[in-house]
């Protein structure tokens, strides 16, 4: 028994030590529970919410782009796509077989669906086909009982009802490229589209709106259990453009088959009513995504359908530039309206001979006659007297040689050469002969159709620094008599008047180069100036082999045809520029387009704002008017 | 010497079943019901408010376990003393059988399919090892405990099942067997310096053993020791467990309201991580409540051990208590990120048949010690030797 007592004492001691140890360890557990559940609880509560709460972005509907009268030019179209949820389907393959009898499913689509189904979790919807027609949607809905797991998802996609007619002005939307992400989470949404060119790009942020947010509870596998809260986003705002739907479409029709551009703008407010470039492309195709083949065709086309020639095409202004040279001459006093120059068909400078387009010569010319008949020799002389820097200075004031700042991406500056420019760009001194060439809008001089329209508008409004824009501001364009919106150019209005008179006779005068395109409707007459700019000279050798005429040359070597003009003559409202690439002569290829477009602009105008032609007086008859 | 209680001791040698029945501490049984009831509630919640598939079976198993416990408690303690080694050897044979079947059936196999439950001999061994060790030290005097040769048998008793379990491989259970065995040796009176010696020896042997390990074995050990190195595996479980537990706060998210558990962020919520779910839904209060129940069960164990007049009873009661404590401590410490992840269930609460039945068998032995605390059991008891 003694032995057992010893054992018992030892056991009791050890058992109590053990119990003490367990008590300490249990206290440790309690302490840890307190630490996790009380001290650190807020942090873990946050982590728990981060685990289970997932933020989903709701893409806002994109704002529409409307024409000046509120008609939609770009909108959103309801689209339908078929999706399949694997866990709800009785076998994905069998369901696809059934579905293939109702709608077309390519072998590529089928493979992709099966691959995605295998890869993704079973409750994630997989797109079978996008862009279903309403007919296909109905067929699927009617057969829904045989298609478990197949549902129709609705979405919105950008739609341009007039296709290519507005493609360059509006631009297009497409999927976000990697380098375009800005941190806006919307841009990372799959399928989100942003403006890639045109107004879609300039006003992308306005049109985009802001995304809504939906807080959903997800489980560890990412399945959505329920929606916790939802804040609606701000739909994109509509943009009202200055474009006139009908005029733009008319201008596009008129350019069909040609490569070129037409710009029509309000001479007082600067509102661009039409901005067409040809050939065009279907912006809807960009939205759905171009196939490689389609893309190559657009890029490789020598007529450059993707280029907005109205703002990015740079052409020698040709004879249309003579109005700028004439204004510079009058302003600088190197000529007066009465200054006469004798044209014998060419002039000499040193060892070089400079030809007039009229081989026999125009004879004695004053400024008015030289503009009306587009005498080159007269302007060689004016340019020689002015010097190239003075010409460049005046053309810049008229809107040439630098971007005019329209609200579109991709505007090119054109080029008005100066001595310092040549020294810098080419490292060569300026030759006086080059001044003469610039004097007739050739050589280094380059301008865009938009710049030419701006120059025309600045003449037509009597010398105010109007700039073009594509979106409407609240105030409507003021009547001609109202206070101008823009500061004056700082030129003598009398000189402007003299040149406008000459432009009137270019079209309406007996000897005018554009008299064939005269508008004969009372009160709607136009004034203007033709231009033909050489792409290349016809060489001596070619003359010898019989190539005399521009039409004999291959298309891409023919002359550009240009026309600038405004109407109505006595209360100018619309300024226009037309460039037909390689179209031949300005009077034959460009002026008829200008006539049709300006006439349409005025007729649409009178229809819309119900302003009768009485507002404008009859054109002033000049001495050499045939009537 | 303690003959003052001699009459009662004599009486208890011939206790009737009815008398034994009323000797059972019913408050202790109530504590077990409370713990198991918590298990049923949490398993009901884990199945998203459904008794299927876990809660109903848990209840049934506890019912069976309770029956086993009462039957064991009313069986004479000398019966258990007599057959201690036989039971131990039978469990060991089952372990060997699992080992053989496992090598046939490919991969780690820890259980034998008995139809009703999948019997895991390693869980059973946690109790029968204690039984065998108590049987052994019952026959060893206080002086003999100090002798090194006396320790040979118990060391073999511990090492044999531990080695078999380690081969499965189940490092957690192996360590638990070693710890439980070691602690029984400690309460039996083995000198402290011997434990220190073993610990020092292990420290010296560790680097040598490390050199002999294969790369994949080292990786396994490293992942076991530092789960953070495996953030998508064991580390992920611990991180999610701490988030769920901590987000429960003081009062919890309410019954069936545990977001992390119900949204499946919490792994194995019906077995090893059920304590996390309890703490998420009932907060610190719920966790401490269950811990309180456990502490009272442990207190009963110690009280019964100290009240026993025979050494077998003392060691058996304290041994079961040790095993129970190891279960709960390892599990709770693991889900709170205090120790590496090892597959040890929360006693009476986690879903799992063998652990439940083994524990109830253990509690039956403990209660038998209480019922037969005054039964004279001579040191040199005639029974079937080891």
Would you mind describing this structure in some detail?
Helices cover 38% and strands 18% of the residues of chain A. Chain A has 627 residues and is an alpha+beta fold. Chain A has 2 domains: 56-240, Alpha-Beta Complex (Penicillin-binding protein 2a (Domain 2)); 245-281 and 307-615, 3-Layer(aba) Sandwich (Beta-lactamase). In chain A, strands 2, 3, 4, 5 and 10 form a 5-stranded mixed beta sheet that branches. Chain A is elongated. Residues 475-482 and 610-627 of chain A have low confidence and may be disordered. In chain B, strands 1-2 form a two-stranded antiparallel sheet. Chain B has 386 residues and is mainly α. Chain B has one domain (20-371). Chain B is globular and about 60 Å long. Chain B has 17 helices and 2 strands. Classes of the chains: A alpha+beta (627), B mainly alpha (386). At the A-B interface, helix 1 and helix 2 of A face helix 8, helix 10, helix 13, helix 14 and helix 15 of B.
Keywords:
heterodimer, A: 627 residues, alpha+beta, Penicillin-binding protein 2a (Domain 2), Beta-lactamase, 2 domains, 5-stranded antiparallel β-sheet, 19 strands, 38% helix, elongated, disordered C terminus, B: 386 residues, mainly alpha, two-stranded antiparallel ribbon, 17 helices, 1% strand, globular, disordered N terminus
Helix and strand composition category of chain A: alpha+beta
Tell me the strand percentage band of chain B: under 5%
Report how far the terminal alpha carbons of chain A are from each other: 151 Å
Largest interface: A-B, 42 and 50 residues
Multimerization status = heterodimer
Helicity of chain A, in percent?
Answer: 25-40%
What order do the helices and strands of chain B follow?
Answer: HHHHHHEEHHHHHHHHHHH
**Annotated CATH architecture of the largest domain in chain A:** 3-Layer(aba) Sandwich
Question: In what order do the strands lie side by side in the largest sheet of chain B?
Answer: 1-2
Give unreliable regions of chain B as ranges.
Answer: 1-10, 103-107
Main sheet record of chain B: 2 strands, antiparallel
CATH class call of the largest domain in chain A: Alpha Beta
Q: What's the structural domain tally of chain B?
A: 1
